[in-house]
Design brief:
This protein is an alpha/beta fold and 750 residues long. It folds into 4 domains: 2-127, no CATH class; 136-269, no CATH class; 288-502, Tandem AAA-ATPase domain (Rossmann fold, 3-Layer(aba) Sandwich); 509-744, Rossmann fold (3-Layer(aba) Sandwich). The protein contains 28 helices and 30 strands. It has a 7-stranded parallel sheet with strand order 20-21-19-22-23-18-24, with helices on both faces. Strands 25-30-29-26-28-27 form a 6-stranded parallel sheet, sandwiched between helices. It has a 5-stranded mixed sheet with strand order 7-8-2-1-9, with no helix packed on it. α5 crosses α17, α10 (317-331) packs across α11 and α19 (520-548) runs antiparallel to α20 (550-565).
Amino acid sequence: MWVSSGGSSFEEGKEQDVPVISLCFDYEGVRVRAADRRDRFFVARPAGMAMVGRDRIGEARAQCLLEGFGAIELGQFDEVAPDLDTDADYVVQLDGNLHSYCSFSAYALPQLRTLGWQIEVDPSYPYQVVETDAPWYAAVEPDEQRTDWFGLELGITVDGKRVNMLPAMLELLDGCADGETLEALLKQPSRFRVVPVGRNKYLPVPPERLKALMQVLLEMYRGEKLVDGQLCFPRTRAGSVAKLDLALGESARLLWSGITSVVEKARELHEIPKPIALPRGLQAKLRPYQEEGVQWLGQLIQHEACGVLADDMGLGKTLQTIAHLVREKESGRMDRPCLAVMPTSLIGNWQRELAKFAPDLKVCVLHGPKREQHRGEVAGADVVLTTYPLLVRDIEAFANQPFYLMILDEAQAIKNPRSLNARTVRQISARHRMCLSGTPVENNLEELWSLFDFLMPGFLGEAERFRSHFRIPIERSGNQQRLEALRDAVTPFILRRMKESVAKDLPPKTEIVRPVELGDEQRELYESIRVAAHGDVRRAIRQKGVTASTIAILDALMKLRQVCCDPRLVTVPSARKVKGSAKYELFFELLTQQLEQGRRVLVFSQFTRMLDLMGEGLRERKIPYVELTGATQDRQKQVDRFEGREIDVFLISLKAGGTGLNLTSADTVIHYDPWWNGASQAQATDRAYRIGQTRPVFVYNLIVAGSVEERMLRLQQRKAQLAQSLLGLANAPTALSECDLDDLFAPLAD
């Protein structure tokens, strides 16, 4: 069998080399073409010329075998046969698919040789393949321009020479459009996918192996240009490089060269943390999962990596961090002060916990109007506490002080990479960095990128490339390959434990939705405001688009939410005619029941005016209460009165008291109105449902049936899937589409 190529025009004006086959049968040294119509012919024998008959049955079997490997007899085409400049007998395929042609070379030809066929290949044949068992190599070299950056070269050894396959593989990866997954690409009909390794030479790779390799490259590739044929990556992405061994599988050898120590070290980040001695100076007994958290933080330090401690609310992220600080101090590595930045509401909590659990650490608090008096204490302190607003205000002073470790508590404060907070924290010089957040993804994947851009700049690539490479394919197209790649990349640097899995001694928590129907007057008010607001929103969207109309949308929705809460919150004149609020009445009915049962209650609302109205109702009913809003001067006094069981009702604004409070004496939580971000409500609930709680906790969500509130809950649930898939989080993106808006502004359901 002779394999060569012939010219064929498959598309107008386009010529393609097509594999063709000349099939001959050997009769005692005489080659007879398959297309030869003779039934008999003469052969030379020692005794003279002899007549030999064709073995038509044997030839037919051979032809069927060849056709079974994808060869097509040219005579079958008759008048529709392509114009091939050849007198061959067979053509391999007519689809012009490089991978199919090379699959024939890689699969069919060796099989036929095994069966005893003699095969000759034209030296100029353009679809030649190298041996599939050729050894692979991976070379890791330091980047001459950037510290802690390296270059990767990946390829095979052919005839003793290295052939770098990265350019071809990344070109194939770039060919996967946002809507075309790697899975779909690899399902194209062929036994192998091929990668060019030289002139007219290709390496056939089984699709599953190529998929595994491409998945690793997808995880570490951020669209960077190759430098001298090498893919550059920071040390923090070396864990992805280490997965190349697994991607190739046991049947292929991978020979490492260069700076292999960075790969070996990165492998450890994907393993269970090795036990690390806990600090002696910590005045607290850690739970097992907290010990694991401290070990994980220590492992990050050892590997010069940074991470997010993303434990569920109430699992003791602050305590684990303090334990980590004590250990770093005891190890002698903490040669500079550490800086902890947090919302203003958490300053007092950090002070108390540091004094309680780590009394030997020198703490400097830069907060309040007298903070400049303590500025000189920074250099000699172990831990410096400040807030996001003050860091922004005093950035010049902070930027001049190098720190050992910088900690961002409630790190979602920098979720917008263009915000002043995010830009400011990046100006601080710190050897190590860490984030604390129970909600690292609240609205979209850009928030995750912002955290990692602070922790390890360059780890997730540039913002625009991350958007096109990950965010758009995942959020808009549901691209599972990109989702898996992103999840695999960030997993070693995020530690997330949920209460139900680690705090098994916590009592049960029961979530209850209490719907209420609006009365006629309140219903008419809702509908009148809804119609007017929806019209305003539609006009704004037509003029400026959805994104630019965000303020108008939120304002319109807020008015509807206010009607649901209490007409007294609404400023339009028609609202003053409405007497009574269905939800207000339900609230006091529910609250009275809970107090009669001896329960202690936290009440959350986003509207401080609503809290004022509740306060008026409580005073009328002679029910004592305490209140916490952004205007509260002495937060701790209110907390102490409640936790000291002097008062059984605590009114709290979601913004002011949703974080940083430990209120485990409460066993009932009432959310008077829902919020877009389910994570914020969960954080508020966890003021009570956290370590130290000993009684079952009941959580009530008051919802106006058929209203924007009910639809908000559905939207939360629908949007939760992405964060669940990525990090196992209970919160998710809440960006609004036009379809979402139509649903939110729909009429009240009957």
